[in-house]
Specification:
671 residues; 3 domains; eight-stranded mixed sheet; three-stranded antiparallel sheet; 24 helices; disordered N terminus
């Protein structure tokens, strides 16, 4: 922004009268504007606030900052949608996984220290390059699913990139005319990104069955566009130009000196603490609402993910709409009213244990919380000297993002210490009786090696034992049928092609049948496919319990045969997925028809995490029990568990189920 000096005329006798002819030179000699350059402007200098639409360049720059806000919002809101997947993938408990919330805080602290120096040396062009570059590098690394310590370190880089941009663009827009409205739009685009992000991530993970890190392919592309868009828009905003604009207001000293000077103002600390609490509240709600709605309100993974989308949609609408209301009633009154409304709605969310009520309430909480941040920034630019805007608002913005890092981490740590949020559903009535209680018991047996109720012992049955008992066993190397091929393609990571070395299929078709002489007792049959990392059970028939002699060699259970079939070709430790195709068992079909897929005739793919009631219901069916017994018989208690159950159903076909297997995370308790 240029500083213009209006030079007053000292000799009024030279001024032309109305009846005199005035030429161009006479006009230029009266009140000639002189640009101060590096000179200190006098006390009567007039500071003109730029308008966002005064030129095409200004519009271009504003839209670039909005895209930066979109990317920041998309990143911040993605945590809630992927946190369950992170827990499963890295096999960490809530406390450890919550480090992804905490680590950006260190990046925000660094940004608060460096922001002023970047402005002085590189100008806004430096911000437009450094911030998006941090995002691009981080998202690219996360998309290759690095080890967990690397993931935590990369989130520090995210904090640095978001921190420098948040401070710079808030100060730049906060000094514009109509800053309340324009800041509302800037923060509104943060909300747009935060709204779309969990929707996309939830759809990719829960509906399409993609791995969690596939979401960061999209984020990498968004960050690449961010760096091109922002750098080109602010390319002429160099460090020398910024120093020229700040001439007369810049004090001597480096970044630390500027920050220390800003901290001598009480208003800096007030807004910093306020925004710390605000940022912590906002991100904590957005980060943990999916887990809460799943575990405590018993929603499905997709419905709970949509609740997070509703919250961020409320934040977005609040920033777009209430940004025009606040300046008309005054920021102080407006922020007070918004906070009181948010508190009342949060009480409704807490005290009314209904999924729909909670979803609506949390969306309205977001609506009233949304515009508080831009309102505080506007107030800060009015109360602080201009030369301290970058340092003070950068410090406060870092505090805000620090709250957004610390609060979710604290929630995760407290939840882990108290047995986490899912413990609440144990005292509530089951939604899917009688299967849910059975599945919960099986889950407890798999996860808790100290549980004495489990009577399933490790099986020593091998296929050669059945051969010695005159069973008919047929193993044929064969390519998977189309149906099974489509199922493993949804997973990714399992081979679907022929072995190029010996030109023989990687998979084997296996059939096992007992030679039953008594026609009154049906023979036991097992038919399916086996391959590296997967076991597919296509058909099984076992005599009724009344006919069973509990002896592995005489009449083994289906789970014991399944274990023996896989172990005959591969190490048990490599088993990652169990497929049960063409579901015909009446027990699980009743569960699917009456509860899980009611009013979902178009169901194609739906997955349930191990903390969801639908998961327990499916695990409590006879088919789920077979898979649980397979793991208990193969590994014993506290070693392996079912992490996720997916339902796959194409139009006109029977249901297929996929059971995802993982190691029981160390330190996890049954929930």
């Amino acid at each position: 922004m240029a500083t213009i000096t209006i030079a007053p005329t000292t000799d009024t006798s030279e001024a032309p009268r109305q009846d005199q002819n005035v030429d161009v030179e006479d006009i230029q000699s009266i009140g000639t504007p002189t640009y101060s350059g590096d000179e200190t402007p006098p006390s009567h200098a007039v500071s003109i606030s730029p308008r966002w639409n005064e030129s095409k360049t200004m519009i271009w720059r504003l839209t670039a900052t909005c895209w930066c806000a979109f990317v920041m919002g998309a990143n911040d809101a993605a945590y809630g949608a992927i946190i369950s997947s992170l827990e499963s993938y890295y096999q960490k408990n809530y406390t450890v996984i919550s480090l992804v919330f905490l680590s950006p805080f260190f990046g925000y602290v660094i940004s608060a220290i460096l922001s002023y120096s970047i402005h002085q040396r590189f100008g806004r062009r430096g911000i437009a390059i450094i911030g998006p570059t941090c995002h691009l590098l981080t998202f690219a690394v996360i998309s290759v699913h690095p080890p967990f310590p690397v993931l935590v370190i990369m989130y520090i880089l995210v904090g640095l990139g978001s921190g420098v941009q948040n401070a710079a663009w808030n100060v730049w827009i906060g000094n514009m005319a109509n800053s309340n409205e324009v800041l509302g739009f800037f923060h509104g685009f943060y909300g747009v990104g935060a709204t779309i992000s969990p929707l996309v991530a939830t759809s990719l993970i829960s509906k399409a069955g993609w791995p969690w890190y596939s979401f960061y392919y999209l984020m990498t592309g968004a960050a690449a566009l961010e760096i091109v868009y922002a750098a080109s828009a602010f390319w002429t905003e160099t460090g020398s130009k910024y120093r020229q604009e700040s001439a007369g207001t810049t004090v001597r000293g480096g970044a630390l000196h500027q920050t220390r000077l800003a901290l001598t103002y009480k208003v800096t600390w007030i807004i910093a603490v306020f925004l710390f609490l605000y940022g912590g509240t906002e991100v904590a709600i957005g980060g943990w609402i999916v887990v809460f709605m799943t575990d405590v309100r018993h929603g499905s993974a997709f419905a709970s993910g949509m609740t997070e989308t509703g919250f961020w949609l409320g934040v977005t609408m609040g920033r777009f709409v209430l940004g025009f209301v606040s300046p008309r009633i005054g920021e102080k009154l407006a922020i007070t009213v918004y906070i009181l409304c948010a508190i009342a709605l949060e009480l409704i969310f807490w005290l009314v244990p209904e999924f729909i009520v909670s979803a609506v309430a949390v969306s309205l909480v977001g609506f009233f919380l949304g515009t508080i941040f831009p309102g505080v920034v506007v107030v800060a630019t009015r109360l602080l000297p201009k030369n301290l805007h970058v340092a003070a608002i950068g410090f406060a913005a870092a505090f805000s993002m620090g709250g957004g890092a610390v609060f979710p981490f604290m929630i995760g740590a407290i939840a882990q210490a108290r047995g986490n949020m899912a413990s609440h559903h144990l005292v509530k009535e089951d939604r899917f009786p009688p299967w849910q209680s059975k599945g919960r018991r099986l889950r407890q047996w798999m996860e808790d090696f100290e549980n004495g109720e489990c009577k399933i012992r490790q099986s020593s049955l091998r296929l050669r034992d059945l051969e010695q008992a005159n069973w008919t066993i047929c193993i044929i190397p064969k390519c998977l049928p189309l149906r099974e091929n489509l199922l493993i393609r949804r997973v990714g990571g399992l081979p679907t092609e022929w072995n190029t070395g010996d030109q023989r299929p990687l998979y084997k078709k296996v059939s096992v049948r007992s030679n039953q002489e008594d026609i009154d007792i049906p023979a036991l049959e097992w038919y399916g496919f086996v391959g590296p990392g997967m076991l597919s059970l296509s058909w099984s028939c076992r005599p009724q319990e009344d006919f069973v002699v509990v002896n592995e060699q005489d009449e083994p259970y289906v789970s014991q045969i399944s274990k023996a079939v896989y172990e005959n070709s591969f190490s048990l430790e490599t088993l990652k997925y169990v497929f049960v195709t063409r579901i015909v068992d009446e027990d699980i079909r009743n569960c699917l028809n009456y509860y899980i897929s009611s009013d979902r005739e178009d169901l194609v793919y739906q997955s349930y995490e191990y903390t969801e009631p639908q998961f327990d219901a499916l695990l409590g069916t006879k088919t789920g029990k077979t898979v649980a017994y397979l793991l208990l018989g193969a590994f014993g208690q506290g070693v392996k568990r079912v992490r996720r159950i997916a339902i796959i159903s194409e139009v006109g076909q029977d249901w297929d189920l996929r059971f995802d297997i993982e190691d029981v995370p160390q330190g996890d308790k049954f929930i």
